[in-house]
Amino acid sequence: AQLVESGGGLVQPGGSLRLSCAASGVTLDYYAIGWFRQAPGKEREGVSCIESGDDSTYYADSVKGRFTTSRDNAKDTVYLQMNSLKPEDTAVYYCAAVDRDIIATRPLSYNYWGQGTQVTVSS
Description:
mainly beta, single chain
């Protein structure tokens, strides 16, 4: 299985970005997908998760109301829509997959990881 993130970049505070996580070698229908981020000198932080069954979602308090995760199973792709971005959202963002119908917020819960995409929020 391979996960590839895209959509990162430089954006001004208050702006928006949409990250994509495209899968190959697996059918994402059966996988819970998590989004994590890691800023320099900090631990990897769980941002959101979407279950494989009923598409229930979880968001960290720091992004609740601003970020939305969704999936398009026909394209084997999961998205993270990020609005009202703040400088503290600056980090490398990773998607991860686990073949269970769960909400998982810890990195160790996931089997597969993408390579990451840089998001920089700065004026």
